[in-house]
Amino acid sequence: MNPPRPSPVSADWPTLIRSVPAMGRDLLTFRYRKWPTGTLVGAFLGVAYLVNPLDLIPEALPGIGIIDDAFVFGVFLTLLSRDVKKYLTWRNANGESNRHRPS
Description:
Order of helices and strands: HHH
Largest sheet: none
Distance between the termini: 42 Å
Number of strands: 0
Number of helices: 3
Helix content: 55-70%
Radius of gyration: 17 Å
């Protein structure tokens, strides 16, 4: 029996995670000009929701109290991965793939 193969989404996570700092640098230096406003707003609202003591499902309920927090975090990760994929497409199209790697 063959071991299960990782789905394409889970196989992309290491690359996406390693690309976030490069995307941040390129955004701050204005090399990459497509600001992910939806993700930034989502991150701000997500953090506000996570630190707010009023939740849809209170943490006082053992085991299920973190479900809504996990959902909010999952939505943020989905938005972030979408924007990082767009950034990687831009970087590869502009020949920027090796710019941030140390020689």
